[in-house]
Amino acid sequence: MQDQFQRKIEYLRISVTDCCNLRCRYCMPAHGVKKLRHADILSYEEILRDVRALAQMGIRKVRLTGGEPLVRRDIVHLVRGLKETPGIETVAITTNGVLLSTMMDELLDAGLDAVNLSLDTLDGGKFFSITRRPMFGAVMEALERLTREPRIEVKMNCVPIAGINDDEITELAAIARDYPIKMRYIELMPIGCARTEGYRGVPMDAVRARLRDAFGALLPVGEAAHEGAVPTGPAAYVKPAGFAGALGFIDAMEHKFCATCNRVRLTAEGFLKLCLYSNAGLDTRALLRGGATDAQLADAIAHAIWKKPEEHYFEMDTETRDRRAMYQVGG
Q: Which amino acid positions bind [4Fe-4S] cluster 2, per UniProt (predicted)?
C-alpha cells in the first residue's frame, strides 16, 4: 500500500486507551485527564476489523500504545487476535513497564514479538519526580526480566530533557553495552504538556557527542551502515565497540524522516491518523458502526492513506495541526 508520495505504508500504531497509571510531566497533567467513555472507544472486535482491512492492503507490523496499553482489560486477547490476523507478521507493545512483569508470560503465550520499555531515568527519586508515581520498583523488575528474556526483541525509549534527566544519558546507554537491547533516545516533541510547560529537549547531536566521549566511535549498524539505504523506521542505530546491543536516535525535529515514513495511527476512538502532528485522517468508528461493508471500509481507508501528508510541521502552528495530546494519539 502506497500513499501519493510513493511511501510504502506497512506499520500501524494502535492506541487502545487514553488512560495511564503514570503522570509523566511532559505527557500528562498532574490531575490526569477526563477519561473517554467506554462506549466511545473501539472494541477489540472493531480494532481487529480495522486491522484485517489494513493487513489486506499491506500493513505487516502492529504496535499497541496508549496511554498505557497494559491498563486496558484483557489486552492479551487483542494481542492474540492480532497475531492470528492473516498478513500481520509482528505485534509489539510500547509500555511504561509498571504492569509488565505480572503480564509478560501471558503476553508471550499470546504471541507478542517485541516490547518497547519507556524509561527516562534509573534513579528512583527522579523517576517519582518525572512520573509523579511511586512505581519505580515495578518498572525495574520489568527491566530485569527483559534483560534475560530471549523470546522477544527489546528496545528502551528515553526522552532526554534539559535539567531533568540529561545527566543520565551515558548511564542509560550502558544497559545496551551489557545486554542485547536497543537503547533509543527520542527528541522531545512540542506536543501537549511538553509544549505548554516549556520543557526543553536535548538536541540529538549533543546526545551523540556525550555518548562518543564516553564510549568512543559510534559505528553505524543496520541500514545506517549502508550508504544510500532507505530507512524502514525513524531510528538511526549505532554500536560502540564492546556493546551487546545498540544505541538509536530518533530526532524528528532536527532531522525529519518524513520522506521515509511508513506508518499510520489508530486512536482509541477509531480515528485513523495519517501523521502524528496533523488532523488529517478517517473516522473508522463511524464506518464500523454505520453498517459499512468490509469492502467499503477498505476502500475508505485506502483513499485516506493515499492523502497522507508529505511531512509534519512541528515548527508551524497551522490550522491542520492536531490538538490532541501525546497520550491521546499513542506517540
A: 258, 261, 275
